[in-house]
Design a protein that fits this description.
The complex is a heterodimer of chains A (112) and B (114).
Chain A lengths: L2 E4 L4 E4 L4 E8 L5 E7 L6 E7 L4 E4 L2 E6 L4 E6 L8 E8 L6 E3 L3 E6 L1
Chain B lengths: L3 E4 L2 E4 L5 E7 L5 E7 L6 E8 L2 E4 L7 E2 L9 E3 L8 E8 L9 E2 L3 E5 L1
Parallel strand pairs in B: 2-11
Antiparallel strand pairs in B: 1-3, 3-8, 4-5, 4-9, 5-6, 7-8, 9-10, 9-11
The chains are: A mainly beta (112), B mainly beta (114).
């Protein structure tokens, strides 16, 4: 079965720095990879999607890369702010988008 | 803020009781999903629906059942709650076609079975 691994340890960074989160997967060839943000006690919120034939996608301070050879996605938040503190989840989806497989998430804390 | 609602937000119930977790969305989305999430763990898909009268089981085996009689409504039912059902249940919806298959999540129901 597919396995999705995200940074196992919580990530603490100083405000203004770039946060880099990792999502590695095995036993699966997703057509899409998504990133979500989840705050305590709330449902996840969609941030970005990247397709298997795309190397990089940007949205404001967010950047996602997708390397299907390494089976890895990197999620970057530049000029990080304390408000960026949350858990970030990656999710893999098939070509039909009917099923999604989520990672355990990485907890990010941006220190003022 | 997504227009998807779940009730109740918190529920503490005794073993053997029947419960229904409600999920409604006002976006007209055809696809709806139920996930189970334990603290610090990944979301596991337990049920999904492509539209009215369509329901499928997800990868995680669950003793719950779902129904989809109306587009906007996707309730989840446990006939006899057990302590092993204690978890966070998240409902989500997305458009039927076209990328990015963005899922809109509700706030979740935290269920505790004593």
């Amino acid at each position: 079965s597919q396995k999705i691994e995200q940074n196992s340890e919580a990530l603490n960074i100083q405000e203004g720095k770039t946060a880099t989160l990792t999502c590695n997967y095995t036993n699966y060839s997703p057509a899409y990879l998504q990133w979500y943000r989840q705050d305590p006690g709330r449902g996840p919120v969609f941030l970005l999607l990247i397709r298997e034939n795309e190397k990089e996608k940007r949205k404001e301070r967010l950047k996602v890369t997708f390397d299907t050879t390494l089976k890895q996605s990197l999620f970057h938040i530049t000029a990080s702010q304390p408000a960026d503190s949350a858990t970030y989840l990656c999710a893999l989806a098939s070509g039909t988008g009917n099923q999604f497989y989520f990672g355990t998430g990485t907890s990010l804390t941006v220190i003022p | 803020e997504a227009d998807i609602y779940q009730t109740p937000r918190y529920l503490v119930i005794g073993t053997g009781k029947k419960i229904t977790l409600e999920c409604s969305q006002t976006m007209g989305h055809d696809k709806m999903y139920w996930y189970q999430q334990d603290p610090g763990m990944e979301l596991h898909l337990i049920h999904y629906s492509y539209g009215v009268n369509s329901t499928e089981k997800g990868d995680l085996s669950s003793e719950s059942t779902v129904s989809r009689i109306r587009t906007e409504h996707f309730p989840l039912t446990l006939e006899s709650a057990r302590p092993s059902h204690t978890s966070q249940y998240l409902c989500a919806s997305s458009e039927a076609s076209a990328e990015p298959y963005e899922q809109y999540f509700g706030p979740g129901t935290r269920l505790t079975v004593t």
